[in-house]
Amino acid sequence: MTDFAPALSDYPYQVKLTSRQEDNDENGFINNVAFYSFFNTGVNMFLQNHCPQAFEHEGITAYVVSSQCQYMSPASFPDDIFVGLRVAKVGRSSVTYGLSVYAGETKRRVAHGLFVHVYVERHTDNAVPIPADVKDALLTFSEEF
Q1: What 3-state class would DSSP assign to 94?
Q2: What sections of the chain are H helices per DSSP?
Q3: Is the peptide bond before 78 cis (omega within 30 degrees of 0)?
Q4: Residue 67 CB burial class (10 angstroms; 0-12, 13-18, ≥19)
Q5: Which residues pair with 103 in a beta bridge?
Q6: Digit-coded pLDDT (tens) for 15-62
Q7: Which of 81, 106, 120, 125 is buried deepest, with most CB atoms within 10 A?
Q8: Hey, what CATH class is 8-139 in?
Q9: Does the keyword section mention Transport (predicted)?
Q10: Residue 142 or residue 110, greater confidence
Q11: 10 Å Cβ neighbour count for 59?
C-alpha cells in the first residue's frame, strides 16, 4: 500500500455504486465485507466496459487469488459509493488492481486496497499467460502513483 492519498479523479477508471441498507452493520456503518464486494463489482464493470475480450477466451478464466483492504473512515447507507480503479501491475499470468472507495457527496476516501486476478486454464486450474489482447487492454489503464 502507499502513503499517497489519491483523489477519485486520479484513477483512470471510476464507477458509481449505490449502497444498500443491508450493507450496514449493527453499528450503522457499511460492514467491511461490503468493501470487497465494491472492489469485485468495480473490477468486473471495468472488464466488461474496457476489456470485454477477457470473457471471450474459451477455456481461460481469472481467479481472485488475493485481496486486501485498509479502512480510513466509516461510510453508511444511503451514501453513494465511488470506486476508483487502476491497473497497478501486469505480470505473465496475473494482474493487480489498485482500488480506492470514496463515499458521500464529498467523495471522502474511506478505504483502499488491492485485488489480484490470475488467469488459469479452466479444466486444470493451471496458470496461463494473460491473452495478448487482454494484456494490451489492461496496460492502457496501467497507472503508477
Answers
A1: strand
A2: 32-50, 132-139
A3: yes
A4: middle
A5: 81, 108
A6: 999 999 998 899 999 999 999 999 999 999 999 988 877 777 788 999
A7: 81
A8: alpha beta
A9: no
A10: 110
A11: 10
